[in-house]
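Summary of Year 1 activities. Much of the first year was spent building the evaluation harness for sequence design. The harness presents a backbone, in tokenized form, and records the residue chosen at every position. We chose the following record to illustrate the format because it has been used consistently in internal testing since the harness was completed.
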């Protein structure tokens, strides 16, 4: 396994990987396929990924097998915690958002997600962050259980526009 920091030249790879993991994680039976495709068409395009990779507030990591086959990725974004988060959390210290963390479905449950998350947490600590936060769809019980196992706590919620549908995400945080 190798986890590396993505570069702008990874935009095509990340576009493909992000679309595939989105379909696997949120497609049928969780959501209708047209809804997922609408989200992908408006939020996961190569120009969007190129812009995100060029954004100095973002950092992407790619998880690869020994043969360099990409199997997952994560995106961290330096931003102030949102108003919806509790005042105690917003005052808890310097925090960073884990905006995305996805694995190919055939890799889930084998420890790679934990490896990728631990890499993100170590990077955040080394960069001087005191906490991380993320959003997770309220119906994604497996992901919620995974995050709770790693010490994340629920601190609020927000609504997320997924294509034409408004869905609720829980905010979770972890002190580092």
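For this record, the design step produced the sequence shown next.
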């Amino acid at each position: 396994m190798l986890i590396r920091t993505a570069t702008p030249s990874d935009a095509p790879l990340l576009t493909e990987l992000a679309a595939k993991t989105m379909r696997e994680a949120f497609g049928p039976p969780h959501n209708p396929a047209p809804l997922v495709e609408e989200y992908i068409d408006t939020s996961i395009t190569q120009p969007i990924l190129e812009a995100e990779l060029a954004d100095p507030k973002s950092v992407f990591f790619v998880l690869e097998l020994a043969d360099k086959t990409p199997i997952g990725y994560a995106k961290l974004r330096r931003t102030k915690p949102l108003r919806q988060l509790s005042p105690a959390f917003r005052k808890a210290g310097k925090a960073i958002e884990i905006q995305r963390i996805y694995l190919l479905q055939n890799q889930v449950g084998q420890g790679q997600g934990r490896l990728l998350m631990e890499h993100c947490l170590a990077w955040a600590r080394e960069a001087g962050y005191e906490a991380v936060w993320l959003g997770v769809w309220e119906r994604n019980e497996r992901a919620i259980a995974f995050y709770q196992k790693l010490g994340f706590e629920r601190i609020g919620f927000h609504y997320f526009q997924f294509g034409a549908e408004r869905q609720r995400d829980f905010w979770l945080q972890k002190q580092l």
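DSSP finds six helices and seven strands in the chain. Quantitative recovery figures across the full test set are reported in Table 2.
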